[in-house]
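Q: What structure does this chain adopt?
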Amino acid sequence: MASVTTIVSQLTSSAFLPATEFCRLSQSLLHWSQMQGPGIDLKPPPYALDALEPHMSKDTLEYHWGKHHRGYVNNLKKQIEGTELDGMSLENIILASYNKGDVLPAFNNAAQVWNHDFFWESMKPGGGGKPSGELLELINRDFGSFESLIKEFTIAATTQFGSGWAWLVYNDKKLEVVKSPNAINPLVLGYHPLLTIDVWEHAYYLDFKNLRADYISTFLDKLVSWDAVSSRLEAAKVLE
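A:
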């Protein structure tokens, strides 16, 4: 298994990623590696597949988690078998393969596995509502109000053209909303992710057809686990 030092050497020698940028990325990499551990497996959502109904159906979870997410895991295992990536943690694979032409397909599948794990854990039965404590204080400080955060997050998720993600992140001791195309995620952008919504069409089509805005509204009003976001914020603060 390649060490983090080896990965640093590989990435800092790449023309695509400056060494100074990697220093910040590596902190997030190590943190998430410690939290999630090594191994490439299909992790089940932290609730039963029908637990988010009526806001997200069991059919959606069976297809989205059981087919799409499973497909990313299976494809990644095939792609890394016998390569230098074999045996690395998922997070190490993401960072080692980002913008590296010889293993770029592995990045796409690895990042999608990670993104989906993070997405499932961003929701809970009986979610939504409004956060409290320090998270709400930072939201009010950085966005002006909780309602302003919801508006900005909704705009990011709605205007992400094609497939991708919208994120609430912690960056330079502040909360920000960012969006990313395809499999790109905050681990390679240099941010600490706190919350995400999947806006690939397969995430919502069975329940909402082409009405992405309704899906986003339901996610924010009924599904978000602000407890998970608060826990991620506490972890991110340690690294800033």
